[in-house]
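Following up on my earlier message about 2-phosphoglycolic acid. Here are the inputs again, as you asked, copied directly from the submission form:
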Amino acid sequence: MRKIVIAGNWKMYKTQSEALEFLKGFTSCLTETPEEREVILCVPFTALTLLSKNMHGGRVMLGAQNVHWEESGAYTGEISGPMLTEIGVRYAIVGHSERRQYFGETDETVNMRLRAAQQHGLIPILCVGESLRQREEGEAESHIAFQLATDLIGVDQQKLAIAYEPIWAIGTGRTCESTDANRIIGLIRSKLNNPDVPILYGGSVKPDNIDDIMAQPEIDGVLVGGASLEPASFARIVNYK
Ligand code: PGA
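Thanks, got it. Here's what our run produced:
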């Protein structure tokens, strides 16, 4: 059985007091959320520490937005698996396009991060997806196939989630057609050796398109940026019909 995973990615938003305020509003909206939906918040490191102390075993799980491949060392600005698991973090986004684009993340470092995350008991959410130019030139499928082939070397597919995030749809308000996202996610699944890996869609997911996206048979969940910052809007997404 494939898991349903609804993950918020706060990126570099929210101070600790804003994060607490969010949590208050959000948890009260989850009383009717079906048990089998995994709800995850991937928040800045400062908010992770705070939320882990304030969630009291509730149904929201915590995710980091990155994780380093070493346990410790001289890597200024990075965070390691043991630092995350010690505070109860369960997931880590790896290879988000913003990391690849602005911070020089490569398929090789993505691969190292994925394997390290798993070694430390974190479930990585690997992000893949094509740029607008690649889509327009008909290279989306081959680009994603290349990313998967490189990123997943030596990665245990029993402890993994993947997010298909077309770069041109992130933060632009321009969503990929749900049928097209469904097609690409089916393609991603065909390249895996475990058919039960949850594969999410990400890119301008909003309360008004979530029902349509989740109605697609291949799509197991969503990775949500902007619309996860506000309790009512993220709750509407989590409680999709
Ligand atoms: P968005 O971001 O929902 O704001 O488009 C998605 C993401 O970057 O994961």
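One observation from looking it over: The pocket of 2-phosphoglycolic acid is lined by residues 9, 165, 170-171, 202-205, 223-227 (CB under 6 Å). Hope that helps, and feel free to reply on this thread.
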